[in-house]
Amino acid sequence: MLTNDQPRKDHVASLRSDAGLASALRVSLARLTRRLRRQAAVHSLTPTQLATLVAVERHSGITPGELAELEKVQPPSMTRVIAALADRGLVSRMPHPTDRRQVTVSVTEQGSTLLKEERRLKEAWLTQRLKELTPEERATLRQAAPILEKLSRI
Description:
It is elongated and about 55 Å long. The chain has a domain at 47-108: Winged helix-like DNA-binding domain superfamily/Winged helix DNA-binding domain (Arc Repressor Mutant, subunit A), CATH 1.10.10.10. It has helices spanning 6-14, 18-39, 47-58, 64-71, 75-87, 109-131, 135-153; strands at 91-95, 103-107. The protein contains 7 helices and 2 strands. It is 69% helix and 6% strand. The mean pLDDT is 88. A hairpin with a 7-residue loop joins strand 1 (91-95) and strand 2. The longest helix has 23 residues, at 109-131. A two-stranded antiparallel sheet has the order 1-2. It is mainly α. Pfam families: MarR. One of its GO terms (molecular function) is DNA-binding transcription factor activity. Keywords: DNA-binding, Transcription, Transcription regulation. This is DNA-binding transcriptional regulator, MarR family.
């Protein structure tokens, strides 16, 4: 007969291996990402459009080709995403300073405002969830945050 804590013990044991830890992190981070995405669904951007807008904000003046490479999509797909963002007034296209055959893309004030609101909503939701944790659990997450950041950059 399984006790209520038996599945928990099995889960803790599985975390002792790198494969078990990888699996647990993958599932937990995917769930957290989905939950965060739902918190800021005040706009009608697709995940690709939102990721592109964030990338343009980080790399202002980027060309569509560079953006396609950065986001790992085909250039024609990126051209459509940029057009949709420009139609909504979230990005602007300007002539390239040295190559008149190209354009550069930058975030508009409206795009910047949308991203700030997106971040505010996500952080408010996550702040509320963090308040539900014990001080010890929050301390553990503070220690884990730089490690997760490092994992995201490898």
